[in-house]
Amino acid sequence: MTLKTVQTDKAPAAIGPYSQAIVAPPFVFVSGQLGMDPATGDLVGEDLESQARQALENVKQILIAAGSSLEQVTAVEVFLTDMGKFLDFNAIYAEYFSDHRPARAAIEVSALPKGGCVEIKCTALVG
Description:
The chain is α+β, with helices and mostly antiparallel strands. The chain is built from 2 helices and 6 strands; from the N terminus they run βββαβαββ. The protein has a 6-stranded mixed sheet with strand order 1-2-3-6-4-5, covered by helices on one side.
């Protein structure tokens, strides 16, 4: 099996020694995405709503670069620094996954890189 590294400038560059995603057919594994602006590498705001939307956009762009899409996502892992914002996150998430509902876990963590409040990673089918 040949692994393919995914890199797109439509999502933020990795902030450590990892790839935006790895394609291992028939899957693509997307690394955790924060709500970072692809152009600046900075968080788009301090609030959950702006960060969640940007993180989901980053995931979407990486999936497209890998030859996949949100409709092909099989599993999502969400890391929140405040589980009290779970319902707010769900409302935003539902805009991206309305009819297609992949398996998902949501986990509260004490902190995220760059002071983010949400990080999202996923696995999807390719092709």
